[in-house]
């Protein structure tokens, strides 16, 4: 692959259409935006775009979970959250409006699992709530409220009473809310 | 502890020869998976699930979390003591402990519980007496003793197989897809490493892999490619039929997606709604989506009416003098607003649709008119019921509508469509406020539990007083509307603008009342000391009642009024004119609201933020519920009036189109997002139900009106040709078997049979639901047991590992 190829080869395009939930127009739009991000990097044409560049996208800029999203979808060995074009497509596919509830809930679970241990324990939940309400001191919940909230969440969703929320319990909670699919969406 | 030596590697090596030496492999014991040898190990007796029935005597408890299991089994006060599977002494201990808890319960709950106990005892006495009277008890008992063993065994087997499936899930805690176990417990390894493990899976689950479409797998693209490469190797073992079927499914799915994409591409205003959603959230977008839905519905009505009502009349019109162009010279501005003059003999109103030259027995303009109108109403019923049921199923799934569910608020709390930083901080504010409100509600509930009797009496008295106040307000507003209607009927001699105002007095009164009173209701409900959700819903219910009832009174008045015959020769037209006036006035009111109330208020707050008035008013919030109520109200008016003013859907379509842009202007320029987050799923059920109520009211009014206008003065049903005669003439021309079928279907016997069949089907569904709920409870208990077993085993394992490392 030499130079900045601005066109996507046809067989790759059809393969992406088969393996993701994106339509042809969405894939081409993603390719255009990704190429712009790549061109903005000072330096050689690299196949991965660093996390800081990805976070300048308007869709991700105001999202409190933006760093977690990059880490979850990144397949780089250095674990630095950089995304290749295919990682970017994975991201858009999981957040598209034709993705199934199972896919979305799976990725949501991984995004909310801040310490990557496969379960949501009290520390993960606390970080999640802080991301939702705002990170500054005057926007956080007080310690007492946080304790009450986390004990309520665990009481409601921890079915096997082991103190953590695992994937099945998370999916059980999500499946009861029909608004999740419409709010867990990023459209370019 | 001697029993733990079973798991030490030395002993394991002695027992079996194929165990390898490494610490990780020492777990592969020689207990075969299929035989149940592990039930006979010593450690099985120590597992928490085996100990659960013995725990009640325990002096000290090792785990805090096991305490909760203990509490659930033994401390649940609503379970009668007889139902506990413990010995007599334990039951006595529990009963002693129970009164200590009762002080924190409250008088109301304890009284209710004692009532339940008395009722239960009475039921048991009566049941015992009745079964004592039954004959052949002894014979049946003997028969049962011989034959029951086989049935019990088969029942147990069934239950075991049913419960086995969820246990398989629990064994692998991090398994995320039942069809593919590509990644074992350490969740996020790459596919290359775990690729070898796929081959160790039994054949059955490997064949399950290709059934899931590749897109639905939650792995990265490269992993999907690897899986796809492996798939053709497996396909030879599948067979041509399966692969053909699968490719057909794929093509069908793609076709469905294409069609869905094309249809949603046709929907207008997608970009606008996307922007609004990003700025104001999902709730406001839901309002605009509802508006667009009503617009499409009205457009559909226009098409139906144009095809079945308008076209035949225009094509087969008799050239009579009433269709002359007498009006065009005398057209005045007033006619547009009141519907008189040239509009009266135009296609807008009922009188235009006379019986034309198409005069066959079963195919004439009146029949087509009827068919068109009834198909409009029938279509509305189907679509609204379908939307209500779908929404109801969703909100039933979320559990109690009025209780807060904190977990899904936290897990589904963030709206990923937001792109604007201000919108993001706004959303964070919402979420924080919502969580705080729910936590406060919880402490509120706890406070409610501790209310004293005197407080309760005071509160009930206050609530009754406030409800009486609400009724008084409703009653006075109805009287006001009645008075306005009566005044508008008097003949006016003044200038035409004053006459116009007089004619419009009823709609003006209704709109003013409908605007002011809901705000008053929301203020009143603050004093009633309910939780916030109940307050909101109570206000909504009262406002719904106000709007529908005021419309109902309006119609009721017209139905009962005694008009002088020469003033209204054509009573159908008069009725249609009222509905027309209501619709036109709705449009005027919305313009007025946007440009003369909301925009100046916004300008005031922006230009003079420090003035007292601006601080008092504040920026207007877009109140979604009240706006949706307005939409429902106007749609009800359309349904009521469509029979007598056939072009009303067309007028409504134009009105909705203008309304969209006016509301968009109001939202984007003049409002701030509401402080309280809008729960789309639960409240939309309420709105669709209101739509259904409005439709019901429209149908009732139509039926009453058809009966009333027996001798029609104008239109397709004038003179002797009423609705009933026209239809009966048509039915008589049909062949005999069809006639007898129709008469059978419309008889009472058929209706009775239908209702009976529905009751039987409903009962079977309800009992199935109940049985499922019991099974869910049992499964939940099993889950808790299995999880505590697992924790126990993990602890033992780590203890052994530590001991091994120490001894090395």
UniProtKB/TrEMBL annotation, chain A:
Recorded GO MF terms: calcium ion binding; magnesium ion binding
Record's keyword annotation contains Calcium: yes
Protein name: Calcium and integrin-binding protein 1-like
Keyword tags: Calcium, Magnesium, Metal-binding, Repeat
Domain EF-hand as annotated: residue spans: 100-135, 145-180
Organism expressing this protein natively: Sinocyclocheilus anshuiensis
UniProt gene name: LOC107676468
Domain of life the protein comes from: Eukaryota
InterPro entries: CIBP, EF-hand-dom_pair, EF_Hand_1_Ca_BS, EF_hand_dom
Gene3D superfamilies: EF-hand
Pfam families, alphabetized: EF-hand_7
